[in-house]
Protein: Malate dehydrogenase
Organism: Porticoccus litoralis
Amino acid sequence: MKAPVRVAVTGAAGQISYSLLFRIAAGQMLGEDQPVILQLLEITPALGALEGVAMELDDCAFPLLAGIVQTDDPNVAFKDADYALLVGARPRGPGMERKDLLEANAAIFSVQGKAINDNASPDIKVLVVGNPANTNALIAQRNAPNINPRQFTAMTRLDHNRAMTQLAQKTGTTINDVKKMTIWGNHSSTQYPDLHHATVNGKTAIDMVDQAWYEGTYIPEVQQRGAAIIKARGASSAASAANAAIAHMRSWALGTAEGDWVSMGVYSDGSYGIAEGLIYSYPCVCKNGDWEIVQGLEVNDFSRDRMAATEQELAEERDAVSHLLP
Ligand code: NAD
Ligand code: LMR
């Protein structure tokens, strides 16, 4: 058996975590040979509810669960952490855009970025789920100057999965037939799901659908799916978000499949002309615990406009939180 790794999860008594923690402890994120110590962070008033979650984790008798830490102190939660899933943040309600949460949530991520900087393993892998995820990841990253910025990522895997399923349903196939999906940009209603490189059974997806459906139905449905879930469920996506978080971390830690890639919000190095330093969703391959942006994809004018629009929104979000970016 391997030595246990430390996995910090914030918002651990919230609805996403209620789906997430049990799957991490079951080995679905880091592998069935990898014991984990869960380091769970909550705000003080939620520590009672967190105790209940920890009791249930105990009651599962997970062979891989090597310990549970419960705390309201970020310095304790991130101590020696190898992985961090930053979920704790307010979710939006009906009629809100995710960036409306910026004011309520941004401060959380500057505090946690500092605590990661001061306490975590220098090799920590961070995934930000709390919205607006890309800009919260940027805030955390900029408050952790001693950690390589590549180690801070934001979740667009849920959008990626949504885009795969909508395409499979339209083409009468299954998600097993769909490869090379790409979400560019922000986890927001400006994100750009790109079918020019995606394939269905080896054929280019954009050639299998008509442009009117792509522009008028597919793109807006993927962009608005989070809002549609809120409308239908009366609460934001939880199990599917947890599933995407598991998949994001698993790909990063254990690698992506040969001949395929995944979408991840990562630190832009200027690839595809996107401003350096933004946390922008790109197609990525992962290997040996590291990610690389897929290079050399052709970008036509249609795609370029949409990639620029979502970049513009990220630049505006960054400027709106400049007081939190040292
Ligand atoms: P929730 O309200 O059920 O849970 C959030 C939890 O975070 C609460 O228990 C709260 O007490 C805790 N919390 C708040 N501030 C905290 C802090 N400073 N430190 C630690 N914990 C803190 O919300 P949820 O449904 O679990 O969603 C959490 C976040 O994830 C929301 O911002 C939501 O919009 C976002 N989300 C993102 C995606 C994505 O694809 N990136 C998908 C779904 C949801
Ligand atoms: C989602 O995409 O489901 C989440 O980001 C929740 C939301 O606010 O849409």
Notes: The two ends are 42 Å apart (CA to CA). The chain has ten helices and 14 strands.
